[in-house]
Design brief:
single chain; 5 helices; Alpha-Beta Plaits; SPOR-like_sf; six-stranded mixed barrel; SPOR-like_dom; peptidoglycan binding; Barwin-like endoglucanases; 18% helix; alpha+beta
């Protein structure tokens, strides 16, 4: 009784079970779950039996399902019957028939004729090939296969800020944009620049704008020229990027309102 009590108390200890199987995997080990599943499939065996000849169904109902009888058959076989005229095929049994029987060499059942699309009393050429069963590993379906066999490196390139800004300017409206310097947060706020005094007379050069596309600069100059205001396009570059500046004049100071009325709202007198 003392021994039985000790045994039962040991079974009550945390983490211990006297009825547990001793064939448990040690801690830290991983049980292999890899296994190969085998499936049976039919494989053509022309070396066992194969013939291509005329076959006939005499029109009478026949028992036994799908079968073909040939005088060249030795043992009953599992065969595949094909009708090359229409591409139909069916799997059935092969039996031996007497060679001296009249008619085509192959005789088929009513079920075989229906499956192959052969009419009663009309000989048709068919091919008969023996089948054998073999076991092959079950292939992993495409849905279970990994999309990527290995990690693919993804190449990234940083965007050029100048090129990105140029592309944005090209897609903007034809109104030219004059670049301005960004304020420096560490510097003291600069006093507002006094507006240039409009001269009562004389001529001055007007800065129209800076364009990243030459065609846009030429279009702006053409617009000014058609309005009777002389304009000029000059090419320059900065940080490896080309740009085109458009200026008008020298023209009368009173022409600036007319230039702005053409859509160049950011035009100003050049110093």
């Amino acid at each position: 009784m003392a021994t039985a009590a000790a045994f039962l108390l040991a079974g009550c200890q945390p983490g211990s079970n006297p009825f547990a199987s001793k064939e448990t995997a040690p801690e830290g080990s991983v049980a292999s779950a890899t296994s190969i599943r085998l499936v049976d499939r039919d494989v053509e065996a022309p070396k066992v039996f194969q013939v291509s000849d005329d076959a006939l169904w005499d029109g009478r109902p026949s028992l036994g399902g799908v079968w073909v009888a040939s005088p060249d058959a030795v043992d009953p076989e599992r065969v595949i019957l094909r009708n090359p005229a229409n591409g139909k095929f069916v799997i059935g049994a092969l039996f031996r028939r007497e060679r001296l029987n009249p008619g085509p060499p192959l005789q088929i059942s009513s079920d075989a004729a229906a499956a192959l699309g052969i009419l009663a009393g009309s000989p048709n050429k068919i091919s008969v090939t023996a089948l054998r069963r073999e076991e092959v590993p079950l292939e992993t379906p495409d849905a279970a296969r990994p999309i990527l066999a290995d990690n693919e490196a993804v190449q990234t390139t940083s965007l050029d800020p100048v090129q990105t800004a140029s592309a944005a300017l090209d897609k903007a409206a034809p109104t030219p944009i004059t670049p301005t310097a960004a304020p420096n947060p560490t510097s003291k706020p600069a006093a507002a620049a006094p507006k240039p005094a409009a001269a009562a007379s004389g001529t001055r050069t007007v800065q129209i704008g800076i364009f990243s596309v030459e065609a846009n600069a030429n279009r702006a100059a053409t617009t000014l020229t058609k309005a009777g205001i002389p304009a000029k396009v000059s090419k320059d570059s900065a940080q490896g990027k080309d740009f085109w500046g458009v200026t008008a004049g020298p023209t009368a100071t009173s022409t600036l309102p007319k230039i702005k009325s053409l859509g160049f709202n950011d035009a100003y007198f050049a110093r």
